[in-house]
Amino acid sequence: MDWMDAPVQAPAGQTPVVPAQQTVDGTALAAAVVDRLLQVAASPRFKDETVPEALRGVKNFEQLLTVIWATRKMAMALSKGDMDYYTPEKGIIVGALKTLQSNLKHLTWQTQRIAGGDYSHKVSFLGEFSEAFNYMATQLAQRISLLKSTSEEYKNMSFRDALTGIYNRKAFMHFAEEVFTTLKPLASTLIMADIDKFKNFNDDYGHLCGDEVLKLFAGYLSRALRPGDICSRYGGEEFLMLLPGMPLSVGLSIGERLRAGVEKLRMQFAGKELRITSSFGICETGTMPDGARFDEFICSCIGRADENLYKAKEGGRNRVVG
What we know:
alpha+beta, Alpha-Beta Plaits, 9 helices, 2 domains, rod-shaped
């Protein structure tokens, strides 16, 4: 028998009487319970967590209300992106929300890793969303790989002389700056080389011949130097080489070896055998001073090598001056 149906006990000898105020209207009580639960579950601005006086005696109502309040708060926290919200309440709905919170928190961490360039992360706990997320990660990895490859290709193209295939002036400046600002060798050799009477090849045999001479000369220089040396076409028939860590005494002997090697080159063009000679201006760079600007430092070094190249050409060409 429910407490709402229990009769009021009358004193002995008297007829029991049920006062009108103790009569419970079951329909009204149910309506009050439903109204309270709807307020908690559906009203966005409802904040009263107390149990109304008329409902405090209803069996399990307070426990149910606590669970619904916990569910409401958890759902609101998740809707605002709060991944650290905690509730001690348990139950299948609150538990499901906690699982969702944990998954979203882990997904946030994985997204941060992907944003940092690690595309290996995959998820498997959110159904179709997981499939979409994993597809996105795979596509990002492929596109980034393609972009890197394309970027490296364009960078390589921008660093290469279109005719000879060796480094151009831009590449020389880029790699030389790395040498002097990162490696900081105590001594390095800078060589400026020039093809002797190059204009005659263009005038006598045409520009196609001149192009072949440039390619022959550039190919020889680049093959004759160490892998770590920088060989570039500086402009026209002038070539600039940096030999990191090479003192001037050794650099001069290298320059003489290059000059002698060029003198032995032969080229067939229009049925004729052509030979070329070259002049070399060499200087030692030393270490770039602390606080110095690279562009000013390297231009000063190039200027000294160019002066020595001028002396070599004035002195009769096909010689090394340093």
